[in-house]
Amino acid sequence: MKKIIQVALGILTSIGGFLDVGAIATSAQAGAAFGFELIWALVLGTVCVTFLVEMSGRLAAASKHTLAEAVRERFGAKFYFIQYIVEVVVDFLVLAAEIGGVCIALQLVTGLSYRWWVLPVAFFLWLLLWKGTFDLIENSVAILGLVTLVFVAAAVVVKPDWSSVLAGVVPSVARHDTAHYLFIAVSIVGALVSPYLFFFYSSGAVESKWDREYIGVNRAIAVVGMGFGSIVSLGLLVAAAVVLHPRGIQVDSYNQAALTLVQPFGFIGFLLFAASLGITCFGAALEVGLDQAYITAQAFGWRWGESQKPSKDARFSMTYTVVIFLSSLLMVAGIDPLQLTLFTMALSAAILPIVIVPFLVLMNDERYVGKYRNGWISNAVVIFIIGLAFVLAIVALPLEILGG
Amino acid sequence: MSQEDRKEINLIRDVLDNQLVDRHKQPMGRADGLIIELRTGEPPRLAYIEAGAQTLARRLHPKLSNWVSKLASRFGKDGEPYRIPWSRVHDVGIDIDVGVDAEKTPVMLFEQWLREHVVGRIPGGS
To answer: Each residue of A372-390: b (16+ CB within 10 Å) or e?
Structure first.
């Protein structure tokens, strides 16, 4: 019975972790700009992230190491710090984008510009980390995150042509605007396969004292949780494709994205969109903020743990304090949250190899994971998708920047 | 695996960069450096594990190392990296267990400073 509760909680948690500002922004953009054409990118991203989340849980359960610790030990300080700096910079941008998402949600509801909300939101974020425990944070975000099921409901209510939806699963070349098509495809993969997720998930598993008994639980959580999260993203993409695409509405701001729920559900839909955006971004912001502290503390071998009092791990606690403050300044400065999100997600896809390649090496190392090594299928699938995403990112990022 | 069970140890693979754990099972940094003592007429002997930002910085870049040393002196460090004699190493497994009390070593100076001057003064910190 206890295991069942854990699986259920874990699934809820991973839904919380899966959905964030990136998933919402990229799904809405994809549906609005290209109809069902980009569903394949969502499918690829989901398959890849499911494998990788399962691996990071398995690494923690089998070796009692987090991903960051294992990389420093196995690849040495020099390599680890290259990866660390890249990850800190991208996390910094992701955190700013997530905080921006929460503030935009508040702007949608109140009409007051998002920039006014940045510091109060950042403060509340910090307060939860400062006072809360890991379980409290994860579970509350997970349960509130169920509101995002409204996207699935919307996809059903708008009555899409399901055979066209299915046809979108097959990768296709763009019918127009190839550069933007590739850019959105890369952003979708980057949003789903967020590098921070693996550092965070393995730290959470170590913090929850997972051992080898959890390997089965971990697999169930990864498959069901990630699958479920991707259905929500798919729901939003489909709703955007039906509601926005035929009317030629591009998602240049979150207001347009909200229309996907206004059309089927009216004003309630608008409120539910704001709630979904706010809650998922807030949950993701908590995770990214914590992740910055995790990877820093683990890099230097400091004491760390979200469930301890801040005085027990002063350096750890001060790391997320400083990071949240700095990231929020980026939003106060008035950078457009949606543009920042799309750019950051594509950047995430571009840095994937530097995070994932050492991760795969570890997952094939018997000294670390013993008999719980990767099979060839998971290796092959992950290498293929990461390689593809990297190549697409290298092509698409400059094109998008040049094209404005 | 306890030390008695094995005849040799791979320093770079199993010791360097691994987590140091003190006698109260508390993390106390990582094995940032290894010091080997040269002896005339005898083979070199593994003498110390070094821990601390200065040692780590020196491995990454000499300039970074100077900068870290200056910063460290502000927190009351004497500029010398902290060394744990190999005789105090109790066990090398996933982590390196050492028989010292972390709170009494310089590796915790910055932690203690933050605890006292910053975290302790923020409500809910302790």
So the answer is: bbbeeebbebbeebbebbb
CA distance A233 to chain B (A): 38
**DSSP β-bridge partners for residue B89:** B98
Helix spans in A19-66 (H): 21-34, 39-63
Instruction: Single out the residue of A12, A2, A29 nearest to residue A343, CA to CA.
Output: A29
Q: Do B30 and A311 touch (CB under 8 A)?
A: no
CB atoms within 10 A of CB A354: 16
The distance from CA A350 to its chain's CA centroid, rounded to whole angstroms, is 15
- Determine the residue of chain B that is closest to A78 in CA distance: B60
Asked whether the beta carbons of A32 and A180 are under 8 A apart, the reply is no
The pLDDT assigned to A395 comes to 84
Digit-coded pLDDT (tens) for B70-104: 877 776 666 678 999 999 999 998 889 999 999 99
Which A residues in the span 212-271 are in contact with B, Cβ-Cβ below 8 Å? none
The whole-number pLDDT of residue B78 equals 63
List the one residue out of A43, A46, A49, A45 whose CA is nearest residue A170: A43
Mean pLDDT confidence for B53-69: 85
pTM of the model: 0.92
- Nearest CB among A69, A78, A301 relative to B60 is that of A78
Distance from CA of B25 to the nearest CA of A (A): 10
Tokens of A203: 């730290």
How many other C-beta atoms lie within 10 A of the C-beta of residue A290? 27
- What does the pLDDT look like over A18-53, one tens digit per residue? 788 889 999 999 999 999 999 999 999 999 999 999
ipTM attached to this prediction: 0.90
Q: Contact A147/A275 with Cβ under 8 angstroms?
A: yes
Give the whole-angstrom CA distance, residue A56 versus residue A62.
Answer: 10
Residues A271-276: contacts with CB under 8 Å, at least 24 apart? A271/A109, A272/A147, A272/A150, A273/A108, A273/A150, A274/A105, A274/A106, A274/A108, A274/A109, A275/A105, A275/A147, A276/A24, A276/A147, A276/A148, A276/A150, A276/A151
Matching residue, tokens 């987090």? A66
Minimal CA–CA distance to A314: which of B121, B30, B84?
B121
- The pLDDT of A218-225, averaged and rounded, is 88
